[in-house]
Every structure is written in C-alpha cells, then in structure tokens.
C-alpha cells in the first residue's frame, strides 16, 4: 500500500499547485484525479478554453468593425469555427500536458480515478476500468472544485440547453442565444457568441449585472454591452424552457410578480453559478462538517477531521483559479512547517470581456455598508493618450482610499487591459500602500496604466490630465 506525507484529491489549480509546493518542501506527495487530464475545471473547461475563444472572437470582431478606422482595410472576415475551436483545443492540450510535466518534474505520483476517503489518512482510488487501490498518507487535501449549478425545471443536454462546458464547443454560432444569469460566465461566453454573430438576450434575476462588483462599473459595462448588441432582461427569471420543433421556448417571469413572457432561442446557456463538488468523496461517512455544500475549514484550511484539509472552489470564498492556487500554496507551506497564509483582501477578480473589468479590494457599496469613510479618485480612459492611440477609450479607473489614512481599500477598472493593470493595485494593497504611494510612482508614458496613477492622484485632486 503506497504511503505518502500528502495526498491531494483533484488536480485543478488548487490541487496541482498544492502538490508541487508540497514536493518542493520535501513532502512525499501523490495526486488523485478522476478526469483523464490534469488541470481541473480551469484548464479543461473553464479559464483557459474560454480565454482562447474570447481572444479569437475579439480578433474576429476587430477585423469586422475596428480595423477600418485605423486605415487597415480588410475584406469582411469569414468565420472558420473549426479552426477557432482547434486553437482552443490546442491551447487546452498544451496547458493540461504542461501540468502533467510539472507534476512529474517535481516527483509527484499521479493516480487517475475517483478518490474516496475511506478513513482519515486513507484514500481509495477507483480507476475507469473499475479496479481499485488504496493509498495512505499523513495528511489529505481535498481540492475537488465545483460543478455547474442546475436551474430547477431546466435540463442541460449540452447541445441546445448548455452549461459553460457546452457553450465552449457549439458547432455554429446560434442565431439567438438566451443566457440565463448576468454573471461572469454569462457575459464572457455571451460575448464570444455575440462577436461571432449571435443575438444575445441575458435574463438576470437581480436588477443589475455582475452582482458583487462595483455598481458604477457594472452600470457602465451594461451600457457598453448594450451598444455591442446585448439585450438584458433584469429582474426576471427563467421558469422553464421547452424544446419545440422551431427551437427553444423559454418562459420568463418578472421576479417582482406580473405577467410572464415567452422568448424563442436556438441555444440557452445556463450560467447561474457553480456549486461545490464533493460527490463520491465519502465526506458524510467521515463526519466532515459542511455548510451549504461547502467543506467547512478553519483559517489553516483544516476540516474538523484531523489530517484532512480543503482548498479552492470546494471551500468558502470566491470561486477563482488564483484563489485556489494561493490556498494550495498556503496549505502546502503549513504542512511543510512554514507559515502559509492567504490575504483575501488582495485577491483580484477579472471579467475578460471587451472592455475588461478588473477589481480588487472593497467596493463603494461595501465601504458604505461598513461605515468606513473613504475618498474616491477617478480617471477616464478618454483622457489617456495611449487609449486614444488604440481607440480603446471606454471605461475608467476608480480608486477608493481611507479618508483618514489614505490607505487604498479598493481599485476598480473597466477598460481594455484592465486585467493586466489590476496587478499593481494588488501589490499596493498587499503592502498596505496609500493612494499617494501610487500617485508618486513613475508610470511609463504612454501606457494605459497611467490612468491608474492619475486615478490615485485624483484621490487628492492632484490629477494632471483632467
Ligand atoms: P477544479 O478546477 O474544479 O478542479 C477540481 C478537480 O478535482 C477536477 O479536475 C475534478 O475532476 C477533480 N475531482 C473532483 N472530485 C474528485 C474525486 N473524488 N477524485 C478525484 N478527482 C476529483 N477562474 C478564474 O480565476 N479566472 C477565469 O478566467 C475563470 N474562468 C472560468 C471560466 C469558466 C467557463 C468556468 C466554469 C470557470 C472559470 N473560472 C475562472 C473558475 C475556475 O475554473 C475555478 O475557480 C478553479 O478551477 C477552481 O480550482 P479548484 O482546484 O478548486 O477546482
Ligand atoms: P455568477 O455567480 O458569477 O453569476 C450568476 C448570475 O446568475 C448572478 O448574477 C445571479 O444573480 C444570476 N442568477 C441566479 N439564479 C438565476 C435565475 N434563476 N435566473 C436568472 N439569473 C439567475 O456565476 P457564473 O457566471 O455561473 O460563474 C460561476 C463561477 O465561475 C463564478 O463564481 C466565477 O467566479 C467563476 N468564473 C470566473 C471567471 C473569471 O474569473 N473571469 C470566468 C467564469 C467563471
């Protein structure tokens, strides 16, 4: 019976990163993965394939609508979806194989099959052919991630009624795409298909898009998406979707009550969130404490069962790949005798649309709710030279700083390249920096990130270019 210091169940961004860090610290480590490839949701059916399609569809859109204004005259672009999908599949293959290589390089043993925790320190691995073997370890980390949250009354077939997984592999752009949920997945994958020709209608339960993100950013983003052709039905819910010979027929009702309406679509994307995934792990028999499907952990990622830890989408906090990675490193360091720690105040969130949205720290709404006095500095990309040169003037940077100490509490960016620009705000928040620290830091000219500096200057009304 192979024995390890650590067994990690699941090789998504949380699990594989945890295993590599543990191996670096000298722990004899094994991973168990039920999928055929490593990388979890993120690399196989999430972050990576979606970004490959977002990038490719953005190029298509540029060629169709944006290049002429730069004096680059091209024929109307033709879509070869098969090649676009091959680009996506090749990107996924390179990434998942890369994880396999990294695990080998760090001498992490990989077992493929469903992992079930039979007892503390004991994992049974059931391979696809039904064979089983038992591994033992001093410690076990659960990194089993999440799965699509179902919409009651609507059955996902991954053909006409799809989750994000099916929406990453459609055979052709649907003429009419109904998106249920104006969250990150709905708006990212809605953007892909909208750029490739689909008419997109988004039905959202709440009266706003992107709940949890800065409300001013979300409002501007909604207007931009509407200009791109999106239609929004806010404050509505999809009650059922019928398959008819003419396509899908959805019944959509106002949340506040009132008359339901009917909408025709060729494809419906259900994107109303994700649920933690613990099926088959055997947690109930072990008596592992759970809360609303999530494994309950303490500040050191420990469950209530000795030697059993959990990280990533399966525990509290945002369901983000880099959050899972950070927790993977932290728990490995704690198990390796170091001081692993995650600063949840400095975890960014990015929506990879055009323009992008990037955010770190508190929103204005959160500061108001907590009664924290704050100053606001804002700077629009219309006043940024590089943005003008690139014709990407949509959006702004907003910096929220403590009214007394000037410490930066939140940074919210909507604009091209926001996902890259947010990194300096994360470093600033991580180091407890002030708006003045950022305002006095030299930024190369001409760059989009000068808008971040100007927003920091604007916190104390020192901005130059506005
Ligand atoms: P997962 O990546 O879900 O990995 C868990 C792994 O555990 C899986 O491989 C699963 O097969 C395996 N497993 C489960 N149970 C068992 C078992 N019993 N035995 C063995 N193996 C098991 N996040 C971002 O930060 N940026 C993005 O751009 C982004 N884009 C996304 C796009 C889409 C369409 C989706 C769906 C998600 C996206 N996410 C993004 C979210 C991101 O994918 C997750 O936050 C991340 O994958 C969580 O990592 P994890 O390691 O916790 O779990
Ligand atoms: P989400 O939680 O971001 O958004 C779901 C939306 O659906 C919410 O706006 C919610 O109000 C709405 N909703 C819920 N029930 C509804 C109903 N019955 N009818 C209409 N609307 C309803 O979830 P999403 O977009 O599915 O993404 C899941 C997770 O994946 C997110 O937590 C996100 O963190 C992660 N992800 C991250 C990405 C990124 O970082 N760029 C990209 C894609 C996913």
UniProtKB/TrEMBL annotation:
Binds 1 FAD per subunit. Gene3D superfamilies: 3.30.390.30, FAD/NAD(P)-binding domain (3.50.50.60). NAD(+) binds at residues 181-188, 204, 273. Disulfide bonds join 42-47. Residues 347-456 form the Pyridine nucleotide-disulphide oxidoreductase dimerisation domain. Keywords: Disulfide bond, FAD, Flavoprotein, NAD, Nucleotide-binding, Oxidoreductase, Redox-active center. The active site is at 445 (proton acceptor). Its EC number is 1.8.1.4. FAD binds at residues 51, 115, 144-146, 313, 319-322. It catalyses: N(6)-[(R)-dihydrolipoyl]-L-lysyl-[protein] + NAD(+) = N(6)-[(R)-lipoyl]-L-lysyl-[protein] + NADH + H(+). The keyword Disulfide bond applies. Belongs to the class-I pyridine nucleotide-disulfide oxidoreductase family. PANTHER family: DIHYDROLIPOYL DEHYDROGENASE, MITOCHONDRIAL, DISULFIDE OXIDOREDUCTASE. This is Dihydrolipoyl dehydrogenase. It comes from Methylocapsa palsarum. The lineage of its organism: Bacteria, Pseudomonadati, Pseudomonadota, Alphaproteobacteria, Hyphomicrobiales.
């Amino acid at each position: 019976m192979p024995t390890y210091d650590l067994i990690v169940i699941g090789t998504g961004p949380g699990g594989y990163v945890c295993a590599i860090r543990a191996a670096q610290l000298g722990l004899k480590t094994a991973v168990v993965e039920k999928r055929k490839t490593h990388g979890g949701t993120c690399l196989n059916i999430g972050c990576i394939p979606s970004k490959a399609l977002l990038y490719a569809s953005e190029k298509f859109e540029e060629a169709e609508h944006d290049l002429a204004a730069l004096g680059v005259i091209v024929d109307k672009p033709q879509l070869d979806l098969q090649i676009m999908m091959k680009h996506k599949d090749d990107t996924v293959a390179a990434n998942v194989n890369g994880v396999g290589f990294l695990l080998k390089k760090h001498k992490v043993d990989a077992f493929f099959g469903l992992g079930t925790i039979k007892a503390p320190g004991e994992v049974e691995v059931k391979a696809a052919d039904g064979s089983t073997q038992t591994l033992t370890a001093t410690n076990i980390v659960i990194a089993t991630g999440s799965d699509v949250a179902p919409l009651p009354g609507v059955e996902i077939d991954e053909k006409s009624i799809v989750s994000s997984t099916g929406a990453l592999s459609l055979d052709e752009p649907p003429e009419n795409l109904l998106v249920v949920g104006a969250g990150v997945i709905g708006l990212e994958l809605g953007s892909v298909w909208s750029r490739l020709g689909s008419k997109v209608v988004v039905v959202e339960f709440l009266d706003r898009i992107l709940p949890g993100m800065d409300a001013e950013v979300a409002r501007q983003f909604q207007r931009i998406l509407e200009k791109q052709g999106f239609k929004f039905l806010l404050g509505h819910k999809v009650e059922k979707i019928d398959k008819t010979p003419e396509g899908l027929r959805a019944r959509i009702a106002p949340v506040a009550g009132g008359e339901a309406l009917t909408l025709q679509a060729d494809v419906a994307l259900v994107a109303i969130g994700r649920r933690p995934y613990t099926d088959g792990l055997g947690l109930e028999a072990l008596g592992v404490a759970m809360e609303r499907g999530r494994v309950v952990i303490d500040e050191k990622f420990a469950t209530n069962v000795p030697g059993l830890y959990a990280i990533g989408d399966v525990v509290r906090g945002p369901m983000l790949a880099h959050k899972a990675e950070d927790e993977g490193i932290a728990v490995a360091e704690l198990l390796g005798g170091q001081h692993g720690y995650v600063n949840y105040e400095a975890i960014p969130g990015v929506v990879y649309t055009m323009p992008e949205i990037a955010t770190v720290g508190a929103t204005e709404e959160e500061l108001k709710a907590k009664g924290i006095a704050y100053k606001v500095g804002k700077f629009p990309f219309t006043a940024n030279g590089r943005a003008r040169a690139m014709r990407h003037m949509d959006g702004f940077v907003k910096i929220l700083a403590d009214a007394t100490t000037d410490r930066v509490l939140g940074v919210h960016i909507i604009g091209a390249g926001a996902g890259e620009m947010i990194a300096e705000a994360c470093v600033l928040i991580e180091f407890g920096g002030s708006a003045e620290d950022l305002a006095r830091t030299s930024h190369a000219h001409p760059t989009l990130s000068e808008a971040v500096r100007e927003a920091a200057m604007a916190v104390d009304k020192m901005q130059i270019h506005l």
